Amino acid sequence: MISIKGVDKHFGELHVLKNINLEVDRGQVVVVLGPSGSGKSTLCRTINRLETVDSGTIEIDGEQLPAEGRKLAQLRSDVGMVFQSFNLFAHKTILENVTLAPVKVRKTDKAKAREKAMALLERVGVANQAEKYPAQLSGGQQQRVAIARSLAMDPKVILFDEPTSALDPEMVNEVLAVMTSLASEGMTMVVVTHEMGFARRAADRVVFMAEGAIVEDAPPAEFFDNPRSERAKDFLGKILNH
């Protein structure tokens, strides 16, 4: 579903992605872990071309990422993205936030889009907030709305860029519960997170990055119980003994 080959990316002098090679199969959940500044979020953002790359190729479902224009917009509509900061439209209701893209981009009938949006809001547990505005919701509720908004486009893949890091601790679990249920239903997901419990429970693979490179790529049990690299051992020692 996602094929990344030989991808390099610089920000000025900083080499943020170094020869990244990664394949994600349909229905797989890949959790990307690593210390701050390791390139995790940049990698996530290159997959739907929010960041350009200097070299290498990225394909989604066999199609190479177009540079710009209508083709790129079309491809982006197949790749959902859930950000750290929710990114909901403040002046639109929750329901309007979820129906906007299907109506505008997919040309879905308004009544159908509304019906589907309500079903999705029900699924993520915020249907009773449909007529409210984002500012009237908690962070956890807003992030669940952001997930519903992604699902409204019937994406082939959803990218999560640290979706719980801006939340109060008690709200983290409500968002992770929605993500875990998506994983169990076979949604292809790439998740950049610090949530070790989610990685262990829901991931098919853990990809560990450090200094712009992929250092390990292993099933969760193997990564957490028997990391191969010193860098991963050091990272897990700091995180798990925290």
From TrEMBL:
Species of the source: Mycolicibacterium aromaticivorans JS19b1 = JCM 16368
Keyword Cytoplasm: no
CDD domains noted in UniProt: ABC_HisP_GlnQ
tRNA-binding recorded as keyword: no
Membrane topology: Peripheral membrane protein
Enzyme Commission numbers on file: 7.4.2.1
Gene Ontology cellular-component terms listed: plasma membrane
Keywords, comma-separated and alphabetical: Amino-acid transport, ATP-binding, Cell membrane, Membrane, Nucleotide-binding, Transport
Location within or outside the cell: Cell membrane
Pfam families assigned: ABC_tran (PF00005)
Source lineage: Bacteria, Bacillati, Actinomycetota, Actinomycetes, Mycobacteriales
Assigned protein family: Belongs to the ABC transporter superfamily.
Reaction(s) catalysed (UniProt annotation): a polar amino acid(out) + ATP + H2O = a polar amino acid(in) + ADP + phosphate + H(+)
Segments forming domain ABC transporter: 2-236
PROSITE patterns for this protein: ABC_TRANSPORTER_1, ABC_TRANSPORTER_2
Alphabetical list of SMART domains matching this protein: AAA (SM00382)
Name listed for the protein in its UniProt record: ABC-type polar-amino-acid transporter
GO molecular function (one): ATP binding
Coiled coil: none
